[in-house]
Amino acid sequence: MSVTVRSFAKINLGLRIGALRPDGFHELRTVYQTIALHDVIRVQPTSGSRIEIRCADPRVPTDESNTCHRIVARALAVLKMRRGVVIEIEKHLPVKGGLGGASGNAVAALLALERALKKTMPASERLRIAAEVGSDLPLFLIGGTVIGSGRGEEVYPAMELPVIPCVIATPDIGVSTPRAFADWDAMYGVQNGTSDPPDAGDQPSSKLTRSTPSDRMLRFSHTVSAWLSGLSQNKILSGVPGSRGRGRAETPLLDLVRTGIENDFEQVVFPQYPALRQVKRVLERAGASYASLSGSGSAVYGLFSSRKLAAAAAAKLREQGVPAVVTTTLTRQQYWKKLLASSG
């Protein structure tokens, strides 16, 4: 049986880069948010034992390095099944765009495989093999608003939040995540396990005492915890300027971003690619309540209080030759309903 599922994208609401760990990864803190843009994944079990990847986009690998190939191979081993599988990837999301396209594809392939084989793995086993394949994969096993820590693979569902319009700009620029991390380390003299990255306002040559990585991680965690606490008590987050007096349907995500959370990757990616900084400025000038690089880029997004404002901002970017679309965030319930609306 062939199974088709949607593979949704994500954005990062703030991203804090911490110490370089002994395993070679950086400690991270972020808030993931799934959005309605998506690829389409089709999975068809076959005879034999070959895993075949098919994709019309030449930038997508079709060998064993593909995340879909890797996670399906692990899933078949866990299920103790020797089957051939054809995975078709209908690509709409940018490659190396910071929207989690490859990671979402892998999780969608895993879920489609289970449905095609009429087998189900324990949720903990899904999360385990997803984390083995990549840091961004586990978030797509939760959906909605997700707290990310560790190297990004430790994920915790946040409260369901109202949908908000957003613009996703996808300049034709490929940003390498490993290169972005390397540039971060080079800029701030990071060494294995001993990094001391600065706050966003610090300069590499600053003689001032900088925060330790653990301090920076704690501040981010405290900010997010205070935001979640305010949500649970149905209160506007204390200290967020300009947020009082509006309905709760408008404010939850905007409350978070108005705390000043930032994406640390902007410090190293924007100097390399000034066009991305300009895209962010266009979104801000067009009325975005918050604009940011997603992951290490190159996608830049803006959150808006109305779809009308978002549509005007997207049109302005397209006038300047920058591909941009209007979409929305997805709640967890919407994410799973739309993802699993498959056809046999």
Describe the structure.
The protein is 34% helix and 23% strand. With 344 residues, the protein is α+β, with helices and mostly antiparallel strands. The protein starts with a strand and ends in a 5-residue tail after the last helix. The model is unreliable at 192-198, 200-210 and 236-249 (pLDDT under 50).
Primary descriptors:
single chain; alpha+beta; Ribosomal Protein S5, domain 2; four-stranded antiparallel sheet; globular
Concise overview:
This protein is an alpha+beta fold and 344 residues long.
**If classified by CATH, what would the architecture of the largest domain be?**
2-Layer Sandwich
Look at the helices and sheets and give the structural class.
alpha+beta
Radius of gyration: 20 Å
Order of helices and strands: EEEHEHHEEEHHHHHEEHEH
β-strand number: 10
> CATH homologous superfamily of the largest domain - what is it?
GHMP kinase, C-terminal domain
- Tally of separate domains: 2
Largest sheet: 6 strands, mixed
Helix content class: 25-40%
- Give the low-confidence spans: 192-198, 200-210, 236-249
The percentage of residues in β strands lies in: 15-25%
Q: In CATH, what is the class of the largest domain?
A: Alpha Beta
Large-scale geometry: globular
Mean pLDDT: 85
